[in-house]
Each structure stands twice: as C-alpha cells, then as structure tokens.
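Handout for the seminar on molecular recognition.
Each group receives one record of this type.
Step one: identify the two inputs.
Step two: read the structure output and locate the region that could contact iron/sulfur cluster.
Step three: write two sentences on what you found, then compare them with the reference statements printed after the record.
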Amino acid sequence: MADYEIPRPEPKEIDEKNWLQLKDLLERATLKGHPYQGNEKCGNCLYYLNTDDEISYCWHQQLRILVGFEWWCQWWEAIPED
Ligand code: SF4
C-alpha cells in the first residue's frame, strides 16, 4: 500500500469536447490574446462588460464568453463617447 501513487490529473472527454467547441468559436471570432490595430482590445470594447476587471464577460451575441482585458477579436467596437 505504501507504493500507491496518486494518478496525475488528465483531461477528460468533456474537456476535449469543450476545447473543440471553444476552438471553433475562437477561430470564427479570430480571437487574439493581445491588442490589435493600435489600441483595439477587449478592455476598450463596447461588448466588454466591466472595464475595471482584467477578465470580464463579452456580451457580443456571437461570443458570450469570458475574455481578457488585453484580448481582441474581429467584432471589436468602440465605446460611444456619449
Ligand atoms: S467583441 Fe471581441 S473585442 Fe469586444 S469584448 Fe468581445 S471578444 Fe473582446
């Protein structure tokens, strides 16, 4: 019993499934993990729910996922000034 080793954690079938779904979304959105075209990034995008947070919810109808402040996608839109 003393030789028993706890098995290393491994991704399960659900993780593979989730990854494939998210990867498809990522490719459709051309989602990047860094700003693009100057200063365009999630943190200053209309769809970024809380601009005070480093990670927040993107409410764009094609996405609806958590994203990072410095990320970017093709649906970026400026926050209206008024
Ligand atoms: S629409 Fe794109 S750029 Fe805007 S918050 Fe969502 S993922 Fe970021």
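Reference statements: The helical segments are 13-28. The chain has a mean pLDDT of 95.
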